[in-house]
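User: I'm putting together a teaching handout on how sequence relates to shape, and I'd like one worked example. Could you take Proteasome maturation protein-like from Porphyridium purpureum, show the sequence you're using, and then write out its predicted structure as tokens right after it?

Assistant: Happy to. First the sequence, then the structure tokens directly below it.
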Amino acid sequence: MEVASAKTRVEAGAQKAPAQVGVEARPFGSYVMDATVVHPVQRIEHMSERQARETRDAALADLYGIHMPMRMEMERQIVSQFHRLPGLPSSHLALEFLNNTDLKIDFADYMNLPSERPDLPVIGMHEQMEKAIGMRMPSEFR
């Protein structure tokens, strides 16, 4: 009896969200704003980059064969896996070169860089590596 009534309350309390982007309906009538709402210009910029990549891949496939876009995507996946040790920022220069964005200065290149924020604590490379591999100092030395 209790399970059925709880289910009925959830169904009755869940309302349709208003026609807004980023608003999600929750049970019992509350709404939650999604923090991942992006600016329309950012969405347009992302779509134009994707369309340019698809157009370039189609042109390469027509010119050299289907293996060329597949080979370039495989190279992108390989170079995107390389990372530096913890504590050191990875630049992904080879990935920028393959995507032809190495000469382009974007907002992310100079705005809100985590390495330049004074309010973040500076954690050394050794501490981050110890945390990554699970090293812990014995309790008698703490």
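A couple of points you could highlight for students: The mean pLDDT is 76. The CA atoms of residues 76 and 87 lie 24 Å apart.
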